[in-house]
Specification:
mainly alpha; 1% strand; 4 strands; two-stranded antiparallel ribbon; 677 residues
């Protein structure tokens, strides 16, 4: 296996961590009888020799030894070695010339992959299939090999891998206009029909969706749902467990959030990806999956629904209702998945508010969750319920507020409830007073309370907020100060007693936030302009600080004219957020829309994350923003979300953008802060 390994000048070769002197040890570790040593060696190969999918001269030198390992039956975990080889061959990275040499070396040893296609180890047989497509020439031979393997293969997992390899062949050669791609499509079409088993047929349908959608069955949704249920029946008969420990540990919760049916999850992910913008079909599939008798199918469907909602706009209440039906599931993995997705959907989860409310009422222990460091947070079901804006969350939150701890994320959900949460104000105010009594060490606990009180516009809490700033020894902690100042800004003129404290913060790291609050309270530009100009022109300030200063100057309107030269300079910034903030400020301060419209149009197209700021500027301009109304109308008509971040941020940002676009086009009148009510 390692003949000639010591003759290689490894010290002169490089990988991601520098010298490749450690590579012989890693290669020998792959052949170790110790499972831990093999795993460590494989991790080391991915971490250094194939770091983040890249290749190095040391990678090329490893190829002969990895191939030798792959064919030795006494080597354990050979499937992992083959997967590493396949991944190395698919690299482009920063060295395309070197990557081409790696592929040439693998193509020259293609007979090794042909041999491995008939290996006794099913894991090896499956792992090698992409290599048959990529390295065996001519392509007709590769296609013939795949057809031969289908005829003799009995392992369901390898059969699914064969369908995936045929899809790779069809896409690869089809993209080049090679007519041989049609041969792979014909085989996939055959595999999508009886007498083949449900798993293989599902795999074939998923591949057809990506490479030959015209070959999909006309009754796609009922066909796929039926195949899913047939596959589930086969899996259940095979006795594969799908339960999960009831222990409520972090490790168990993380395991629950991963699909236990990895193959089923991949089959569905492939199909949904291939269907793309056929949203109606995808919703129909989800509804079929979510009504499956098998909890694993339902769990996979929940995660598929999250992907659909992240990418495509629309309420789609039917799958949301069905996801809501899973929150009380006895199978912990399914329950956790449903709660996680409903939390991410926020207001789109409103059709599932009923089951969420029932759960938090019936199971009080789910209302507050403690993290690894004992940090309290709202439990998932209550956070999801409040995120929908359902007023039934308010009495439950009141009970949480009456308890011994206030979750750190309380202030994030109360704004979603709007004025329905007004009954919580007295309890929030009492909590804030208690934090003040407990002393400086505990004042960070005021942050969620301040966020909630400012969202509810509780001007009666101004004295407590001022005291929080006034009584802090030295300077208050920045998170506390920022939250307090933002609350005072929300209270506006009712917070006049805070003026001295706000002025005192103008020479701190909170200068921009303090200036915004002072403008909100006094409406006097002379009080805040010097501080904002200082941040704007300070080359040591971070770009986020300069962008925030530009946003604050925009709210001053023409009174910020002294800042125009610097704002105009920043419209040429390389950072999109800074460039957009400056351009919006120029338009609102000088009324020079013609000059900055190209900047905003360019940023809108090139950096979707700037669209919310641009739409907000257009709304604040009122009729003067008409030249950019076409961007807003196009956005409202687009079916895709402008952001697809996981964890709910993308959905929330997109819903907020759509609201601002609608309000701007409807002619909503901005207030003095430039915000649409």
């Amino acid at each position: 296996m390692f003949r000639g390994i010591d003759e290689v000048d490894w010290a002169s070769l490089r990988h991601a961590d520098g010298s490749a002197e450690d590579v012989p040890g890693l290669l020998r570790g792959l052949a170790s009888a110790d499972p831990a040593e093999r795993e460590t060696a494989l991790d080391g190969m991915y971490g250094a020799v194939h770091h983040r999918g890249d290749v190095y001269d040391a990678t090329l030198a490893c190829v002969p030894f990895l191939l030798a390992l792959a064919v030795r039956e006494e080597v354990r975990d050979r499937a992992g070695v083959v997967e590493l080889l396949v991944s190395i061959g698919g690299a482009d990275g920063a060295s395309p010339g070197l990557a081409a040499r790696v592929r040439a070396a693998l193509r020259a040893r293609a007979e090794v992959f042909v041999r491995l296609a008939g290996d006794a180890d099913a894991g090896v047989r499956r792992a090698v299939l992409p290599a048959l497509v990529r390295y065996v020439v001519p392509p007709t031979r590769a296609l013939a090999l795949l057809r031969e393997r289908i005829a003799v293969e009995r392992d369901d997992g390898v059969l699914v891998g064969l369908a995936e390899a045929l899809g790779l062949f069809a896409r690869w050669y089809g993209a080049a206009g090679d007519p041989r791609a049609a041969g792979a499509v014909r085989v996939l079409t055959e595999l999508s029909r009886p007498p083949y088993g449900p798993g293989l047929r599902l795999a074939a349908v998923g591949q057809l969706a990506a490479c030959a959608p015209r070959e999909l069955p006309e009754d796609l949704v009922p066909t796929v749902v039926r195949l899913l249920r047939d596959r589930s029946t086969q899996r259940t008969r095979a006795g594969r467990a799908h339960g999960c420990s009831g222990t409520d540990t972090l490790a168990v919760r993380l395991r629950r959030l991963r699909p236990s049916d990895e193959e089923g999850s991949r089959l569905l992910r492939t199909l949904h990806h291939g269907l793309g913008d056929r949203v109606a079909d995808r919703v129909g599939l989800l509804c079929g999956q979510l009504t499956s008798p098998d909890p694993l199918d339902r769990c996979n469907a929940v995660w598929m629904a999250a992907g659909l909602f992240r990418e495509w706009r629309g309420a789609h209440p039917e799958p949301v209702v069905l996801i809501g039906a899973q929150v009380g599931a006895e199978e912990g993995r399914l329950h956790d998945a449903a709660v996680a997705v409903l939390t991410e959907l926020t207001e789109l989860a409103a059709p599932a508010a009923g089951p969420l409310h029932a759960l938090v009422v019936q199971r009080p222990e789910l209302r507050v969750h403690y993290g690894r460091r004992g940090t309290p947070a709202l439990g998932g079901p209550l956070r999801a319920l409040a995120g929908t804006g359902d007023a039934r969350a308010v009495p439950v939150l009141a009970e949480v507020l009456a308890g011994p701890v206030v979750p750190d994320d309380l202030g994030l959900v109360i704004p979603r409830l709007g004025q329905a949460a007004a009954p919580l104000v007295p309890a929030l105010r009492r909590r804030l007073a208690r934090v003040l009594r407990d002393g400086p060490a505990d004042r960070v606990r005021a942050v969620p309370l301040l966020t909630a009180l400012s969202a509810l516009g509780d001007t009666a809490s101004v004295p407590s907020v001022v005291r929080l700033l006034r009584d802090a020894p030295g300077r208050p902690d920045r998170p506390v100060a920022e939250a307090a100042v933002r609350a005072l800004a929300a209270f506006g003129a009712a917070a006049r007693e805070a003026i001295p404290e706000l002025r005192g913060l103008l020479d701190t790291d909170c200068a921009v936030t303090a200036a915004q609050a002072l403008w909100s309270v006094t409406g006097e530009p002379d009080a805040v302009l010097p501080a904002l100009l200082r941040v704007l022109t300070d080359t040591g300030s971070g770009r986020h600080h300069r962008a925030a200063a530009a946003n604050a100057l925009a709210r001053l309107g023409p009174a910020a004219a002294p800042a125009l030269p610097e704002l105009l300079r920043l419209t040429g910034s390389a950072e999109p957020g800074e460039r957009v903030s400056a351009a919006c400020a120029v338009w609102r301060v000088a009324g020079d829309g013609e000059r900055v419209s190209p900047v905003l149009r360019s940023a809108w197209a090139e950096q979707p994350r700037t669209r919310a700021a641009i739409a907000g500027c257009v709304a604040a301009l009122g009729p003067a923003g008409t030249p950019l109304h076409d961007l807003l109308r196009t956005e409202l008509a687009a079916p895709r979300r402008h952001r697809t971040d996981a964890g709910g941020q993308g959905i929330q940002a997109d819903l907020a953008l759509l609201r601002v676009c609608r309000e701007a086009l409807a002619g909503a009148t901005p207030n003095r802060e430039g915000l649409v009510p």
